[in-house]
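HUMAN:
Just now I want nothing more than another pair of eyes on a protein record. I would be glad if you read both lines and explained how they fit together. I have put the entry right below:
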Amino acid sequence: MDLLQPYGEDLDGGQSHSEPSSPDSSSPPRLSLPTRSAAPKVDDTMLSLTVAGKAQTLIEKPIDPTQHLVSFNPTYDQLWAPIVGPSHPYAKDGLAQGLRNHKLGFVENANIEPFAFDEQYNTFYKFGYAADPGENSYVGDVEGFQKNDGISVYNIPQHEQKKRKLEKKKEMLEEKEGDQVDAEELDNPATDTWLMKNRKSPWSGKKDWLQEELTEEQQKYAEEHAKKKAEKEGEKQKGDGHTDKSIFHGKEDRDYQGRSWIAAPKDAKANNDHCYIPKRLVHTWSGHTKGVSAIRFFPKHGHLILSAGMDTKVKIWDVFNSGKCMQTYMGHSKAVRDIWFSNDGTKFLSAGYDKNIKYWDTETGKVISTFSTGKVPYVVRLNPDEDKQNVLLAGMSDKKIVQWDINTGQITQEYDQHLGAVNTITFVDNNRRFVTSSDDKSLRVWEFGIPVVIKYISEPHMHSMPSIALHPNSNWLACQSLDNQILIYGTRERFQLNKKKRFAGHIVAGYACQVNFSPDGRFVMSGDGEGRCWFWDWKSCKVFRTIRCHNGVCIGCEWHPLEQSKVATCGWDGLIKYWD
């Protein structure tokens, strides 16, 4: 109690805060004591500095580029600070995914001369080290670099140069000495002189054996063999030779304004996008003395129509005005199998059974180039890309698709996988790929320029497909199958058969009748072996109309690119008919 006494005296000038207890209260008096901390005094200046330092470090820390969420407002310095520190734990090369611009890491452009690059490349593969283009140092085998004094494959050291000079001098001296030696010793292999002279190659001084005279039998065999070889080479080098000429049948090759006769009329435009089935015959072109094997409208405008005849001639006819033959191209010695226009129509290709492919100028009628492998070309195509109009593809009778560069005349690629003669070539997928069909009853899809099949379609129920057409929307292929039906394949990655779409009713077995689409894609059409032209509705797959066109086979049919209701057909009766 004595200890508590000072506390009571300190408060309010020595007056006690305790209230006088009532006589009735039995509780002891309560005292109000001031609060005092029992903890020792500590200087917290260092603690506050440490906390402030951590906060500052957090603010100055650069941001990870792969981080998607930032919980504070970063400064410009943080956003653009260079990444430094330990390597990324989950990346093999230590680079985070966001810092890669290549599957092997981060690649920077460097301007290096081809010679300097080749020098370092070859040096690295020979000596194991090379100069680092980014820094003034070397990468690779450091010990080898020090051992060879950092020489490259193109820098021959002085001692090596001296060594080579001495060797060359020695050789020259030996040659001079050899001239003075006895000729008998030089010819005798038992002497040291001969060994010294021929030490590098024991066969270098060997004499040629004298050719003995052939017996009659040997001579006869050699002559026959040489004759056969010459025939074979001649056949391979060139098909059957024939003089190339053309006859212009028009009144004049230029009009009063100086425009060429092949120039399209300026008012030729499509009236609407809706196509109609033709009903009546409006014109007949007759000029071929034998059957017509193919027809092609002039690209985009259709004011001219080109025809390939079995009478060895190719003719071009007027469509809009006079309806007469404008020019005849004579360059083949046998029937013409296929024709194809370039994109602008100023040039065209013709393939004949004389084993020649000719590249013609449409206007002048001159042959620009002739191509041949010694085999019959069944189909010819130009790459539809504007920048690849010099690339010619031809499907040959020897199972190959041959690719030529028209400018150089050289074969640039051969696609050799088919087991039968190639019948069709159709470009798909923005002309990056093409589909070919063959007598081996299969379809093969190729990447343009790469002679490896990327898709092979062959089923037991499949027949040969001598004609294929691409739908205007580029998503479907119509394939004329020789079991009297038209099958539809998709042009997507899998090239699947569309089992819901099948066009039948016509008889084409044994004939390569052309299949085609209307420009709006609403109708499918095809000729048949009985001279009729069939039209089907694309959506319902039902026969829309048949027209009796030719006496004999109706081999080809083309829809006019601008006139929506007009169709041209050709047949083995030598006629080309125009329907509206």
Remarks:
- The two ends are 132 Å apart (CA to CA).
